[in-house]
Design brief:
Largest sheet: 7 strands, mixed
Oligomer: single chain
Mean pLDDT: 94
Distance between the termini: 35 Å
Helix content: 25-40%
Radius of gyration: 21 Å
Strand order of the largest sheet: 1-2-13-9-15-7-3
Order of helices and strands: HHEHEHHEHHEEEEEHHHEEHEHEEEEEHH
Low-confidence stretches: 135-141
Shape: globular
Strand content: 5-15%
Number of strands: 16
Length: 427
């Protein structure tokens, strides 16, 4: 941690008016702080680069051998707690996992059919007004992302015992206690409502470019994030742990159309159809430590002083070949997915969706993350409760509000104990 001789960092609780000026100021301060440790920015970055390069080579070798870098775990393996340490080691190494058989195949298909009935019964397609944001609007299908949040299928999955089992298991891959504090409760989830993707056979989709979602300029400019990434900025980069939740659960992202108000240990989705690995699937850079590379890369001399490698406010954090070529060499798509499987990736990880033309089969998912109970998620739960009761789009998403008057919308009376706790209705 900083000493009295360590330069303090400027910080902006809200997005600065002069972005270019603030970027120049924070970059200078970060360089000075690193150099106060007796190491140069280049030396610190080279430590990270060597470690990342070794993992990139390992991932490339796996792919050459026809093997997937994605760990695959059977849901039934989670029943024996003796399995958890080894399984957690797998997940910590790659930062992502496929849970096979998370839900029975027939359950996933029934939920998929229920969603179709729900949207058709309520004349969604006749009333659809087009993409509500520029981000998912880029995928090009009409529609692919449904701004639907409160169907029985989604809510039953969110509050199910099997979902709670997986989310708790994943949360325990993190260090929820450090720096003398408990940052989140790994065994209590907060209910984070997200959308549905339904991509039909024969669809053409442009996919989504590689990016990450934990924040934008706030990752460098807010005090909580400066503390969360303290080891990257004080010269002790070897101590950086992407699985340490310290200071992550009370800060917030700068406002924007693609922000996330919640702290998610893992982003995730549950498959409602089978999906072949070559049909426009999710891709990740399965290296959790890559965040260190991404955070330090803008401080190198080849990046303009008013540029954070393209990161700005009100857009996702971009990752690509221009600034991050080493990382892009490890970009790896999913293995074949079966209906009922779930897919998870560390909240800081680079990910995107491959493009597809004339898709074979459906590509249907419900987006459900792991978002453990913590101060940040408890605060967001208030707006989630209001949206749930009104049938509104949650406040993290475009204000489309299709479901306000829909029949068969999931009701408060149908919440079980897990659902009520996830909404903060009970302790």
């Amino acid at each position: 941690m900083p000493t009295t001789a360590t330069p303090t960092l400027p910080h902006w609780p809200d997005p600065p008016q002069d972005l270019g000026g603030a970027i120049r100021e924070i970059k200078l301060a970060l360089r000075q702080r690193i150099e106060a440790s007796g190491r140069s920015v280049t030396e610190v970055f080279e430590v990270v680069e060597r470690r990342i390069a070794a993992q990139v080579a390992e991932i490339q070798q796996l792919r050459t051998e026809g093997r997937t870098p994605w760990p695959i775990i059977e849901f039934d393996e989670l029943a024996d707690l003796a399995n958890h340490p080894a399984l957690h080691d797998l997940i910590r190494r790659r930062g992502c996992v496929v849970i096979r058989g998370h839900f029975p195949r027939e359950q996933a298909h029934a939920w998929d059919a229920d969603i179709v009935d729900y949207v058709e019964r309520n004349h969604f397609f006749e009333n659809y007004r087009g993409p509500g944001d520029d981000f998912f609007g880029s995928v090009g299908s009409k529609p692919e992302i449904y701004p639907v949040y409160w169907s029985h299928a989604q809510m039953e999955a969110r509050q199910s015992d099997r979902m709670a089992t997986v989310q708790s298991f994943l949360n325990h891959a993190w260090r929820s206690e450090s720096e003398g504090q408990r940052w989140f409760d790994p065994d209590r989830g907060s209910l984070y409502p997200d959308r549905i993707r339904r991509r039909p056979p024969g669809a053409d989709s442009a996919g989504l470019g590689t990016h990450l979602d934990p924040g934008t300029l706030d990752l460098w400019m807010t005090q909580a994030n400066q503390q969360a990434f303290r080891h990257l900025f004080d010269g002790s980069v070897e101590q950086y742990d992407p699985w340490d939740a310290a200071y992550r659960t009370s800060g917030k992202q700068y406002p924007g159309s693609t922000m996330c108000s919640a702290f998610r240990t893992f982003q995730g989705w549950t498959a409602l159809s089978d999906m072949r690995h070559d049909q426009g699937v999710l891709q990740t850079v399965p290296i959790p430590e890559a965040m260190a590379y991404l955070m330090l890369r803008p401080l190198l001399e080849d990046v303009p002083d008013d540029d954070m490698c393209g990161v700005t406010t009100n857009q996702v954090f971009p990752a690509g070949w221009k600034w991050h070529p080493l990382l892009m060499e490890a970009l790896s798509g999913l293995p074949d997915i079966q209906a009922g499987d779930s897919v998870w990736w560390h909240c800081d990880m680079i990910h995107g969706v491959d493009s597809v033309q004339d898709q074979v089969g459906w590509g249907n998912v419900m987006y459900i993350p792991a978002a453990p109970w913590c101060p940040r998620n408890e605060a967001y739960a208030e707006s989630v409760r209001a949206a749930f009761r009104a049938g509104d789009s949650p406040s993290d998403f475009p204000a489309e509000h299709y479901e306000r008057d829909w029949v068969r919308r999931f009701s408060e009376a149908e919440l079980n104990d897990t659902g009520r706790r996830g909404l903060g209705l009970t302790d």
